[in-house]
Structure formats: C-alpha cells, structure tokens
Amino acid sequence: MCGIVGYVGKRPVLPVLLEGLRRLEYRGYDSAGVVFFDKGRLRVLKRKGRVYDLEEDIYRNSTLEPKAPGLGHTRWATHGEPNEINAHPHFDCKTTLAIVHNGIIENFYELKKELIIKGHKFISDTDTEVIAHLIEEYVKEGLNLFQAFLTALRKLKGAFAVAMITTMDPEKIYVARFQSPVVVGLGEGENFLASDIPALLPFTKKVVFLEDGEVAILSQEEVKYFDFHGRELKKTPQIITWDLASAEKGGFSHFMLKEIYEQPSALQQTLLGRLDLEKGKIDFSREGLTQEFFSGIKRIFLVACGTSYHACLVGKYLLERVIDIPIEVDLASEFRYRNPRLDNGSLFIALSQSGETADTLASLRLAKEKGARTLAICNVLGSTITRESHIVLYTQAGPEISVASTKAFTTQVLMFILLSLYLQEIYQREEPKELIKMLPRLPGLLNKVIEKLHPKIKECAKNWYGASNFLYLGRNILYPIALEGALKLKEISYIHAEGYAAGEMKHGPIALIDENFPTVILSAKELGIVHEKTLSNAEEIRARRGPIILFTTEGERKFEDKVNYIFYIPETSYAFLPILYVVPLQLLAFEIAYLKGCDIDKPRNLAKSVTVE
Ligand code: AGP
Hints:
This protein is an alpha/beta fold.
C-alpha cells in the first residue's frame, strides 16, 4: 500500500505535498518523492527513508522555484527494493511526464518487455515505471495525451491508483482509480488529490471519491470526471466530518479494527498476480520461485514467533495434505538453541510480518549455515529476513500498524494455501483443483462473516469482558486458531487466555472449568469426526457449568440451547477454515479490550517487532 498526493493551485506546492505525505506515512514509509514544475520543466526529488528525510533534501536545495501542479508519493515497496531509484515518481524516456502509483500492475513484466523492444529505456525495477513509458508510447503512436492516458489504463491488469503531471499539459493533473483508492479534494481556485482523506483535511473537507474505472482531470479552476473510455461523468461532492485522528484510521476507532476490516482487501492483494485460473495453477514466477527449488527436499521446517508461529502450525496441516515428507514446526526461540538436523535436503521456511524478529532471523542464519534452502514469507519488502533468504514470498498485506497482528496472519495463511496448491504440481497429491477456482471468492466470503458476526460479537463481549480467564479450544487446523484467538485476547485486553487442543481437555485443563471460566470453542462440520469429538468436549464443559462461546458451521443447530453464545460460519473449504474462524476471534478480543478501555493499538510491554532476544 502506498500513499499518493497531488496539488494544483496558487499555494507553494511543496509544503502542500509534504504535509499530505506526512499524513499518509501510515500507508507506507520506506521511501518518498515529489515532482513539480521548476522553471517550466519537471523536477523530481526522491529518496529512501521517511518523508522528513525527503524534506531535508528539499529545504537544502535552495535553487528551486517550485510551481504547481505537483505530485508526491510515500512508498510501501512491492516490486523493487526500497531505494532512491525505485522510489516514485517515475518518468518516461524524455522526462516529459511523471507518474506516481499505488497498487500492483500484474502484467507489468510483459508490458515492460514489449516497451523495451520498442526502444524504451527503464531505470527502476518497479512495475510503476511501465505506466509512464506506455503513455509515452501511445503519444508517439499519434494519440493525444488524454487518449494515450486512457489507452494505457485499459492495458493495465491489477490494482492501481495512478496520477500524472506532464509538460504536454502543464496546468493539469490526470488521475485514475482501479481497486486502489483515490479521493479528490475540492478547493476555491485550487484542487487536490490523495490516496486517503487525512492528506486533504488541512486544506478542504469537500471531497469526491473516484470509483473503479474512473478518471479525473484536475486544473486550478475545475475538476472533470470520465470513465476509462473517455465518457464524461457527473460526480457528487461529499463533506468529510471526521477529525484527523479518526481519518488516519479510515474512520475506525483503532488501527487494529481498521486492519481487521482490511483483511478481505489484503487477501485480494495477496492473490494478485498469483492465480492462473485458465491453467488452474498458482504462479510464483514473479518471485523467481520455480519447481526446481524444491527438488531433493526431504524435510521442511516452518519456524517463526508469536502469531507467525501459529500461521506455521496452520501451514503444517495444509502442506501435509499435499506432501509426503516430514514437516517440522518450531518456535524460533527454541529452534535456534536446539540441535536441529538440517542439510541440503532441508527447506527452512521463515515466517515474519516485520522481517526483523531476532529469533527468527537467528534461526534462518543457523539453517543456512547447515546448508538448508531458505524461503521467507514476509510482509515488509527489503527487511533483513527477506534479504537473507534464497526466495521470498510477500504477503502484500500493506503496513500493519497495530501491534496485534491480524491481516498479516490471514495473508500468511493464504500464502500457505497457495504454496500447498503450488506444491501439488510437484508431489501430485490430491488437493482439489477446484480450490484454486474458489480462491477469488475468499475475500467476499470473509467480508460477509465480518459484517454478519461483528454486531453479535459486540453484544457477547459485554457479557464476558469482566472474566479473568478464558480457555480457547480447537482441533486439527482449528487448534492453531484457538492458540491465535487466545493470544489476541491476552495481548490487547490483558485477560489471561489459554489456547489448547480440545482433545487435551481431560489431560488437565478441565480442572479449571467452573461458571466463571468461559471457554471459546471452535468446531467446524468440515472437520468430520473431529467435529463430533469437539462437540463432546463442549458437553464435558457444560456438565461442569462452564460458560461456552461456540463458533461452528451454519446449520449445526443441535448446540443452540446448550451454549451461552453460538456464532455460525458459512460452510466452506477445509483450507479456508483458519481464515474464516480467526477473524471473529480477532473481533471478540478487540471488543473485550475496547470495553476494558485498553490501549489496543499499543498494548503495554509489547513492540510491533521484537528485534532483540
Ligand atoms: C502478534 O499479535 C504479536 N504482535 C507477535 O506475536 C508477533 O506475531 C511476533 O512478534 C512475530 O512477529 P513477526 O511476524 O514480525 O516476526
């Protein structure tokens, strides 16, 4: 996820752009850049680092005579290392037009090859740069600027919010939206654009939201709207009533709640460019992953910490259905100090949202020393773990601000689903191919679960936020979700919560049960015999007057009057269960912590990334 801003009007352009970028830094912050007119030419300043690093560069450069229109960009790298060359804006060959972009161009590789054959010279490793050269190519072929812009947009596949300024039309900003947000800000004798409302609030509260497939052309005096075929549109402005703090959270009370609700679109980003539905295959070629990478692998190690460790536990269930080789899961803090047997027949998979977790990094280095092949599943491009792994698969979840991990977890689980489907080609084990066809429906399915269950979860939380302990139970692929649900509750509400394999009840935990000790039970019909056994665990708890909050499959009515709360999850594929069952637990933890007045986004004693042992 990146942040884009634009301004056309009489104000000094750079302060407006920088103010906007500062307010969008939560969307991405590994590099930043601006482009504006200076003595009639386009001038770009960009660098790796935060917006204030860019600001220092700008104010050191006293020869500038910056004039609007101008564009700004703060980057969350998806293609190409975070560095000055890959920072936006990007130019065409003749630096007559500049582009900033938020999203992922899925077909950039093919477009780039075609443009190079036509003589275009590329400077960066980004997908974005292709857009500038594509527009340039259509102008060269005789289209006028607007038609060249529209034709290029129609050629792109993926998600994009694209803004352009050009010496060919120096009084205007062109902007388009497809699956990445764009908000136009309307002023008096000036107009603005941004990825998100916070960047506009210091200047105007009158906004127009572009929809997918829409373009806006901003000049000082007016904004015109069109579809991607050039047909003019009428758009109705809205007045924003949020203050800045809630605007940065997209109107949500906390970043955690915003990120819980972002999960359907985060899953969509994870899928972008990786589903070849025609061939029924998973495509990791963009990451340079080939089947050869797995040849001769005799053992797989999944290693991580915290929530990422729970994703590894889910990954074990998913991979074991496809692969006939041993799969070990380890806490990184344990792995690094035991004497793991690894060699060149071992594959070490490190999971980390931040890519900086000390124990996970140390385990990765140990695995490499012992000759293992290494693959990282990570959310932060260019982080240490990604730089030290042979192969990296990015979850593309966008920045996760809240310390409690939510969208990072669900996108990690989705990466394991993709990896298990990819490996079926190599190991030829039965993993229904129709699962690939179901994947595009997963984000919508999750959205429905969130919208349907959240109000009732809010009610349920009112009954239990005073509890001192919780037990979370699950079996099979829902056992790691019980662990994750318990972790979410304890880390943001400070209530003691234990996740347990439901089959372990008789081996100790049942001694804890009484009327003040609620148990959250996860049991899906899709788990077959294991589902029945979990329901009998529920009976054992009920017999000891233990309160029960049950999450189970729609239609499983027999427990309706035996539990204190029952939440129904739509019947789905086995592989989707962890994602559909964990999100309600994230919401339960959030609503309990909210009622307790906890500092949800920054819980006491916790850091977003544990970079020390
Ligand atoms: C999860 O909510 C916590 N923030 C924590 O357990 C986290 O998952 C763990 O520290 C691992 O972090 P990483 O994914 O960045 O390596």
